[in-house]
Amino acid sequence: MKFTADRLLLFGATGDLAQRMLLPSLCALDADGLLGSDVRIIGTARSELNDSEFRNFAREALEKYLPANRRGSMANFLNRLSYQALDATTPDGFGDLAEKVGKTESGPDHGLAIFLSTAPSLFEPTIAGLRHAGLTTGNVRIGLEKPLGIDLGTSCEINDAVASAFTEDRIFRIDHYLGKETVQNLLALRFANILFEPLWNAAHIEHVQITVAETVGLEGRVAFYDDAGAIRDMVQNHMLQLLALVAMEPPSNFDATSVRDEKVKVLRSLREVAGNETVTGQYRAGAIGGKAVPGYDEELGKSSNTETFVAIKAHVDNWRWKGVPFYLRTGKRLPERVTEIVVQFRCVPHSIFAGPKSKGGGATMTPNRLVIGIQPKENISLSLMAKVPGLDREGIRLRSVPLDIAMPDAFTGTHNRIAYERLLLDLIEGDQTLFVRRDEVEAQWEWIDAIRALWETEALEPKTYTAGSWGPSASIALAERDGVTWHE
Ligand code: BG6
What we know:
Rossmann fold, Dihydrodipicolinate Reductase, domain 2, nine-stranded mixed β-sheet, six-stranded parallel β-sheet, 14 helices, 21% strand
């Protein structure tokens, strides 16, 4: 049933994500008039707070994490909030929670959206408690924050538990990268322009690079990160979603079924990675932006084998991408925060500017390259060959020049939105296009599990890299073996 929720129940309401992203996103939506006037937000977590204490907590979070010009009338937003303490490990408190949430009437403008941002170990008892309290009926949908498991087996367990109470059309698995404006713009670039699609294949593209580089280290998420590592924290979800959007066939519509049908085909076409196609690393103390930063072991307080960097040469085994490597790399404590996709086109088949050998052999040709900046700079840059001005008595000289579009310049007067604004609104309104379907998550895990199994068989240990560098030298070698240089 299609409905717009009039209540949002936030599990993990006093957690880090709620403070930094969820409450600010909801307040910003409210300020822009995008939350229906009757939408109520009920927070729940273990902490014993009453409504007004939760509102104070929310106010502090907004003052810290939401720019003043996006807050609108905070009082209006805070009035929507209420709170119910709950220990989700036992079914006892769910009755009180259901009472606080109120009766779920049915109808297009009534319903409940639940957002689970808790430790994965709480997913199953939470679902059981919700079912017990009558909070899983047809007019209730649920959003799930990552991590959804630590491998295919545990992910299936979570998916099964959720499926026992919610049908797939009411399950919204979040990958916050899909909420980013620039990630959606990738679809516009590919499918709203005639220019790229005819060239978007192995005949014209030599390779693709996807980089998600971060300068931050552990940020206090010691236990979580050390169990996950870079491959499960970043590649299994965000990077594979980016890859799927770059590689997928044109969907027939921008709707949940069409888009996700095409993405899952790509994810299922990923070839098993060979031993020499991955590199892992872990940072040692170094400096970023002139500031000294500690090594991973020091931040963690013990030594560990967890990778904080991973580079992978991936292949999509289908007609379109036959023989086109996709180089993926991500890491913590790299020199800059940057997420970008580089599409490297092939050389022209024949240069008419070769020029006479006697006069130096003619112009050098650089193949075209499309760089899609996702963050922090939102820009699209296409390198084109141009003639260097001059009389060219020795033959034409050429140089690569960029055709640049900076999104903020192209769209003045708009503001940067938090990815969760879009996702929370879609959760409330029931649009699944930007959420990950079960078959996608499972295909992602299958590929990642095989890589991790390979690391284990080959007893691969992360190579060290200095914080502030671009990862271990083996990552550079991984690309250079194929004559490819990482874009920096
Ligand atoms: C999260 C990871 O999913 O994404 C974090 O758990 C990472 O480790 C974060 O820092 C990166 O998100 P963004 O939006 O800052 O690129």
